[in-house]
Write a structure and sequence with these properties.
The complex is a heterodimer of chains A (about 110) and B (about 120).
Chain A lengths: L3 E4 L2 E3 L6 E7 L7 E6 L6 E5 L3 E2 L7 E6 L2 E6 L9 E6 L6 E2 L3 E4 L1
Parallel strand pairs in A: 2-11
Antiparallel strand pairs in A: 1-3, 3-8, 4-5, 4-9, 5-6, 7-8, 9-10, 9-11
Chain B lengths: L2 E5 L2 E3 L5 E8 L8 E6 L5 E7 L6 E3 L7 E6 L4 E6 L8 E8 L7 E4 L3 E5 L2
Parallel strand pairs in B: 2-11
Antiparallel strand pairs in B: 1-3, 3-8, 4-5, 4-9, 5-6, 7-8, 9-10, 9-11
The chains are: A mainly beta (about 110), B mainly beta (about 120).
Chain lengths: ~110, ~120
């Protein structure tokens, strides 16, 4: 199975900060990398697909980059509604696997 | 509006069975792969199974193969997860999710989640 490792596991940041979350795959997944945001008690919400494509309706302060094994999710200017847990996910090969999550806190 | 509405969660004893259902609306259900993803309390996300549009391809997480069965009824816009021989460590919220059938195959819509509690 392809292992996905996110860092950091938790992150404290302030409103207006630029935040970067990293995701590393145990083997190349080319661009088969997606990012989700999850708030407590809710289903995940797709933010970024194919490593860098912004899902419709997602604010432009979210961006993604990377190829192969190393990927990043960046929030350019943190807003109050961005406090949540973020997951990366590979869809290169079954079983699809997720990173362990990054909890973004105030 | 695309919606996935789940039903069927609950409390079950170890070794017991439960069936989850997920009904889709607002889109052509038969055109999409569908998946089930679970999340144990306080833990991360774990993909469980998926099924092709016509049911001709099915894949499972290795730990559930032989005990869980994913199926679909396109006439009812529904996908199901039959779970047998449930274990305590499979206590989780189970989500159904729609897979975008192109690009990087992300899950673009999710159900609200169904809590499955396995306990004696």
């Amino acid at each position: 199975d392809i292992q996905m490792t996110q860092s950091p596991s938790s992150l404290s940041a302030s409103i207006g900060d630029r935040v970067t979350i990293t995701c590393r795959a145990s083997q190349s997944i080319t661009l088969y990398l997606n990012w989700y945001q999850q708030k407590p008690g809710k289903a995940p919400n797709l933010l970024i697909y194919a490593a860098s494509s912004l899902q419709s309706g997602v604010p432009s302060r979210f961006s993604g980059s990377g190829f192969g094994t190393d990927f990043t999710l960046t929030i350019s200017s943190l807003q109050p509604e961005d406090y949540a847990t973020y997951y990366c996910q590979q869809s290169y090969r079954n079983p699809y696997t997720f990173g362990q999550g990054t909890k973004l806190e105030i | 509006e695309v919606q996935l509405v789940q039903s069927g969660g609950g409390l079950v004893q170890p070794g017991g069975s439960l069936r989850l259902s997920c009904v889709g609306s607002g889109f052509t259900f038969s055109s999409y792969w569908m998946s089930w993803v679970r999340q144990a309390p306080g833990k991360g996300l774990e993909w469980v199974a998926n099924i092709k549009q016509d049911g001709s391809e099915i894949k499972y997480l290795a730990s559930v193969k032989g005990r869980f069965t994913i199926s679909r009824d396109n006439a009812k816009n529904s996908v199901y997860l039959q779970m047998n021989s449930l274990r305590a460590d499979e206590t989780a919220v189970y989500f159904c999710a729609r897979e975008v059938g192109s690009s990087s195959w992300p899950f673009d819509y999710w159900g609200q989640g169904s809590l499955v509690a396995v306990s004696s």
